[in-house]
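Notebook p. 47: complex prediction with magnesium ion.
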Amino acid sequence: MSDDRAERIAEFIRPLRVKPGSEVRLDRDFDPRYRAGMQKQDGVELLRTGVTLLAEYQERLAAADSHGVVLCLQALDAGGKDGTIRHVMSGVNPQGVRVSSFKVPSAEELDHDYLWRYARRLPERGEIAIFNRSHYEEVLVVRVHPENLVRQKLPAEACGPEVWDQRYRQINEWERYLTDNGFKVVKIFLNLSKEEQRTRFLKRIDLPEKNWKFSAADVRERRRWDDYQVAFSEMLSATSTKWAPWYVVPADRKWFARICAASILAHTLIGIDPRYPDVGKEARKELLSARRDLEREAPEGAPADPYADGARKKRKKKRKKERERD
Ligand code: ATP
Ligand code: MG
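Predicted complex, C-alpha cells below:
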C-alpha cells in the first residue's frame, strides 16, 4: 500500500473519529447529512476501490494468522447496519468473516455476566468478526429501558447508580485487553437523523417488499429518541479510547455511510499491515525440489512449468504495452 493512499484514507476518516477524552453531544458535534463535499457518482467508484482493498487485506490477515478484527456496528433502527455489512463485505472471502447479530438476550445469556455472549463470538486470529449490535447495547437499550437490567439478575452491589460508569470502565478494559492481544476493536456508530428515520420507516410501510422489515416496536422505540441521543452521546464520550476509538458515520446517505465504513475498516487493516508468512530457507528448498519433480512429469510437448510460462508471456505483453504507450 502506498503511503499516499493510506494517508488519504486516514485524512478522510479523521473528522469522523471521536477524540478520546472529548465530551460529545451528538446533535451539536456530528451532522448526519455530512458528505465531505462528495457526490453519489464519485461514491460508486470509491466504494469499489475500497472493497477491492479490503479483499486484499483480508487475505493477508488470514495468511498472517496473528491478528483478528472485531467490527462493532451500532445504530438506531433503520440506521442501515444490514446494508452496510452487505456492501462493505461484498468482496471478502466468507470463510474469513463471521457476522453475529445481538438481539434480546436469551435465558442462558442472562444467566452469565453481561459480556459473556459477546466474548463467545470473538474472532479467531486471521478473522474479521462483525457485531451487528454489540456489547454497547449494554449501556444503550439497557440504560434507556432499565427493566433490562433487572432481568440480568445482578447482585445489589453491581447495579447501583454507578453501574453505567462501571460498565464503561469494564468495556474499555476488555477492549484494551483484546487490543493488547492482537484483536483490534473497530467501532462504528451510524448516525441517522430523526427525519431520515421517519422517511425510512414510511418506505417500509409503503413498499410491500419492505413490509417484513417494519416493526411496530421500532416506532415505539422512536418515541425515546432523545433518551437514546443522550445515551449515545455519553457512551461515545466515555468509551472512545486511544486503542479503540469510536467513529460517528453520517448515515442519512447510505452510499456515503458505506464508503466511510469501508474506509474505517481499511484504515484498521492498513495499521495492522498483515504480511504473507515467509516460509523460510528449509521449506523453500523443499518447494524447489518439488518443482523439479513436477517438471520432470511434464508430458511430451508440454512446457515443464506452464504457470511460469504463462506468467513470462504476461510480463512480456505488459512490457510491450508500456513501451507502446511511452
Ligand atoms: P433489524 O434491522 O432486522 O430490525 P435489529 O438489530 O433491529 O435488526 P431486531 O430483532 O429488530 O434486530 O431487534 C433486536 C432488539 O434487541 C433491539 O431492539 C435491541 O435493542 C435489542 N437488544 C439487543 N441487545 C440487548 C440487550 N442486551 N438487552 C436488551 N435488549 C437488547
Ligand atoms: Mg429492528
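Notes: Strands lie at 68-75, 97-101, 128-132, 183-191, 246-250. The mean pLDDT is 96.
Next step: compare against the earlier run before touching the bench.
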